[in-house]
Design a protein that fits this description.
By secondary structure, the chain is of the alpha+beta class. The chain is built from ten helices and twelve strands. 43% of the residues lie in helices and 21% in strands. The strands form three sheets. It has a five-stranded antiparallel β-sheet with strand order 2-1-5-4-3, sandwiched between helices. A five-stranded mixed β-sheet has the order 7-9-10-12-11. The structure holds adenosine-5'-diphosphate.
């Protein structure tokens, strides 16, 4: 049987014109062949691919190639929103398919937006059909409508941030940030939500510990991780922001519900929720935004979690 590399080379004239980016990696995970569309979509040159250098999206491509679990990954920070799909051939070569994601996300988004809209419509119709005259029911339905509108607004805001990040429309002003004060600000903002669940928020970052990133975006990451830690913990939990384990990294630990190891690679997917029935208020977009922000910084996220004994989200950012 011919080697996949030879077949790829033989078909190159045809593959070269395909509107899908194709990249072939050998069993040592080095690029051996690619087509024109891959170069165009990833905004790179032949020389880059020859050196196995994927420029701005190097970490993101390396992550999918190296990972045992990830078979699909969104690639962010370029002018088009892209998706990379990994196919492992029988002789352990890897084919990476790069496509644009626009069409698919419109379908997904409409589906998610339809849910609160349907709920609002049902509640408003019930009011119109007479519930408005019932003094017990009317205020409850109006409160529900108000909550659904808040949910819709949150969803739209999150979708907008996500699409701006994916379209490479977010500028970054990276500088040294003091982890202790970033975590203090996030804790101040979320303290009242934590108090309602009798949850303790602890900042263990030492004085003068620095991380490197865009302040607004990193603030968003820290807030989102703490917010999730509160959301996915029962009463009386303890949430800790810590420096390390490596220079330039930090982590948010909780003593919450945790999750199965098999769920971990999926939680960064858009709209993914481990248990949809329990988290009616959630959009499944928070961690997707976090991951995209960290990708844009050229950083990495690691998650350690066990059902019943809590989770740790570890963010490694480049040192400069
Ligand atoms: P959302 O919280 O809006 O559902 P996210 O993208 O922030 O969306 O999170 C995706 C899923 O990951 C959540 O629905 C939840 O099941 C799981 N998750 C996130 N953070 C934690 C955590 N700290 N502990 C346990 N599960 C978590």
């Amino acid at each position: 049987m011919p080697e996949i590399k030879e077949t790829f080379e033989e078909l190159k004239n045809y593959i070269g014109e395909l509107p899908i980016g194709l990249l072939l990696f050998d069993s040592n995970k080095k690029t051996t062949s690619w087509n024109k569309c891959a170069l165009e979509l990833l905004e790179l040159k032949d020389e880059d691919f020859k050196k196995n250098d994927f420029g701005q999206v190097n970490n993101q491509i390396t992550e999918i190639i190296e990972s045992e679990y990830i078979t699909e990954k969104e690639i962010v920070g370029l002018s088009k929103a892209l998706k990379a799909k990994k196919i492992i051939t029988s002789d352990k070569n890897i084919i990476l398919q790069i496509t644009e994601t626009t069409q698919e996300s419109i379908g997904e988004m409409s589906h998610e937006l339809r849910r609160p809209i349907t709920n609002i419509k049902t509640l408003a119709e019930s009011l119109l059909m007479g519930a408005i005259k019932d003094p017990d029911i009317a205020p409850k339905f109006l409160k529900n409508i108000n909550e659904e509108i808040d949910r819709l607004a949150k969803l739209v805001n999150e979708l907008l941030s996500l699409s701006r990040i994916k379209a490479g429309k977010v500028s970054q002003l990276k500088k040294k940030l003091d982890l202790k004060s970033r975590a203090d600000d996030a804790i101040k903002l979320l303290q009242s939500i934590a108090d309602k669940k009798n949850t303790k928020l602890i900042n263990e970052a030492p004085e003068g510990y620095e991380i490197f990133g865009d302040q607004e975006q990193i603030d968003h990451v820290i807030q989102n991780l703490i917010e999730n830690a509160i959301k996915y913990s029962s009463e009386g939990a303890v949430i800790t922001v810590k420096a390390g384990p490596n220079p330039g990294s930090f982590q948010v630990d909780d003593t919450g519900i945790g999750m199965l190891e098999s769920e971990i690679p999926k939680i960064f997917d858009r709209f993914y929720r481990v248990d949809r029935t329990k988290n009616k208020g959630s959009s499944g977009l928070g961690l997707s935004i976090v991951k995209n922000v960290v990708d844009l910084h050229g950083g990495k996220i690691e998650v350690k979690s066990k059902p019943g004994s809590g989770s740790s989200f570890i963010i490694q950012l480049p040192l400069e």
